[in-house]
């Protein structure tokens, strides 16, 4: 079992766009098939995996296994993204970073991933309606950190709660939404906060409640989310830790 800071899991999401117009291009399944040589939900590229996240114009690059250090990861991701862009160039497409597409119309342009895991995305869409900026037009960077016991969990959870309110001021990259500057530096966070308004516990206050152990987290946070979802998701498709 990895202890705190003995491993790092990194995930980067990019949108596929037309290289000439920069309009979104819902062709992530084509990219994965082109890389793998046949249709697939995930392509393994050495230490990286390429896959999709909900919307058909989004592709995710992530480490297959936790890395023991952050040093050197930028080069590995850059190489993988370069390989993807080389494939996309032949089709007139490219990868576009940032937290949101600046002029995507999510009501008109969303295409959900129709292949593996589609039952998960269909459940999200049925319960929350994914045709909105907080679902259809949203990219993320994730860092996953391990913890070995309640002591490490409590320390990590407290540090995350401290950092979360600060991070938008350091990393905001979505000042344009619906084709205009609207005075909000982090539109991604603004729309994310309300994307589960039908079942508010799924997002909560974004900054989670203080909890001091793994069991307490499972009971107070995950347990409440699962209970609130149950009437809308009787098969328990979304009753997984990632739903938080």
Shape: globular
The number of helices is 9
Let me know the largest β-sheet: 6 strands, antiparallel
Query: Taking all residues together, what is the mean pLDDT?
Result: 96
Q: What's the Cα radius of gyration? A: 18 Å
Q: Would you tell me the structural class of the helices and strands?
A: alpha+beta
Give the end-to-end Cα distance, rounded to a whole number of Å: 23 Å
User: How much helicity do the residues have?
Assistant: 25-40%
Let me know the number of strands. 8
- Which consecutive residue ranges, at least 5 long each, have pLDDT under 50? none
Oligomer: single chain
Order of helices and strands: EHEEEHEHHHEHHEEHH
> Beta-strand level of the residues, as a percent range?
15-25%
Kindly describe this structure.
The chain is α+β, with helices and mostly antiparallel strands. Helices cover 35% and strands 17% of the residues. It contains nine helices and eight strands. The strands form two sheets. Strands 1, 2, 3, 4, 5 and 6 form a six-stranded antiparallel sheet that branches. A two-stranded antiparallel ribbon has the order 7-8. It is globular and about 50 Å long. It starts with 8 loop residues before the first strand and ends in a 15-residue tail after the last helix.
């Amino acid at each position: 079992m990895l202890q705190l800071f003995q491993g790092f899991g990194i995930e980067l999401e990019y949108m596929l766009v037309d290289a000439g117009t920069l309009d979104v291009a819902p062709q992530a399944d084509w990219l994965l098939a082109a890389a793998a040589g046949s249709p697939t939900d995930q392509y393994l590229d050495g230490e990286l995996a390429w896959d999709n996240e909900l919307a058909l114009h989004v592709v995710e690059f992530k480490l297959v296994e936790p890395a023991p250090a952050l040093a050197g990861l930028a080069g590995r991701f850059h190489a993988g993204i370069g390989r993807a862009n080389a494939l996309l160039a032949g089709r007139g497409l490219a990868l576009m970073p940032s937290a949101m597409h600046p002029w995507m119309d999510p009501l008109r342009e969303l295409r959900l991933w129709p292949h593996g895991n589609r039952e998960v995305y269909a459940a999200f869409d049925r319960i929350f309606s994914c045709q909105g900026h907080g679902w259809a037009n949203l990219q993320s960077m994730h860092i996953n950190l391990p913890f070995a016991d309640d002591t490490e969990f409590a320390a990590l959870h407290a540090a995350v709660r401290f950092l979360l309110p600060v991070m938008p001021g350091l990393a905001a990259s979505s000042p344009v939404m619906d084709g205009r500057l609207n005075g909000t530096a982090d539109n991604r966070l603004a729309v994310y906060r309300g994307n589960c308004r039908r079942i508010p516990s799924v997002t909560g206050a974004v900054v989670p409640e203080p909890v001091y152990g793994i069991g307490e987290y499972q009971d107070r946070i995950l347990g409440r989310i699962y209970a609130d979802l149950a009437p809308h998701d009787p098969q328990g498709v979304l009753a997984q830790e990632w739903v938080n």
